[in-house]
Model the fold of this input.
Amino acid sequence: MTKNLKVFVVSILVALFVNACSNRDDSLQLPSYNLGSHGNYGTGPNNTKPYPQREKVNLNGVGGAKVIYEPHSRGGNKNYTVLGKNYQVWKNFNSYIEVGTASWYGPGFHSKKTSNGEVYDQRGFSAAHKNLPLPSYVKVTNLENNKQIVVRVNDRGPFHGNRIIDLSEGAAKAINMTGKGTARVKLEYLNVMPNGSIANARGHYNGSGSFGGSANNGLDDLISDIQQGKKPTIGTIVGATFDVINANKKPNTYTGNNYIQVVSTISYDKAKAIKKAFANRTSFPVNILQEGNLYRVRIGPMPEGSLNSQLNLAKQLGYRDSFIKRL
Done:
């Protein structure tokens, strides 16, 4: 892979991007099979069933929520009734795709509790869905402009009309649908395994609250497609574009004495598991400090202004005894 080839690829990214946008998948339509007394495929009340995916989810160039394996929440995963209609939470499935209307919700719900007991942050990449277990991860594609985002489903809804998902304001902005209020979207479920891998996905994904993947992964994929004579996809092009940008960024660093102590435990394995979970949720370092027979998991160092948000994060994830530690 020569330097001249990379320069050439970067120079044609814009042209490829425009061409790919003109060929987006606007016509995707999934059949809505009638299952008689067993209900229908797709989101809705009664006995609905997730429509199966036919190919792996392409995550190249897609940003959004950090995808980690999470057991289903204690709250929000029982069948329920809203406005006289009965809804079932889907179980024992590993595949789901649907096309329909998305909406978004924001300021009126900010800081209120979601269906699984978490605090709703309108700025994040989250969503509400009628049937998916909580939490779940879904790739959302705005079929009107082909913008894509991965969201973490932690709430129930929407219950207005035939809408299939309610996005947080942050997610809605990422796919440019806040102005219009609704958009025609495609949803693709991500089947996250206990080891953190996504069984039904392909491509490089490194969601961290912004677009982009590991530096040069998207660019390498684009170069490979061109070398093999393949027509680059919109995801590959976007991934390469952001990799070129991100490759020149320096990581954020902070030195200081402010930390969040998440937990103290006598189990090193437990401390490692907690560290891994938080490392995928925070931009600050997560460390294990051994003191005698105890292992303390701490986030930091961090600026004073970040302490409360990181403390709230720890508590939202179930570590109610977390506290601010100034060394």
User: Anything to note?
Assistant: Confidence is low (pLDDT under 50) at residues 20-29, 31-37, 209-218, 245-252. The CA atoms of residues 118 and 318 lie 9 Å apart.
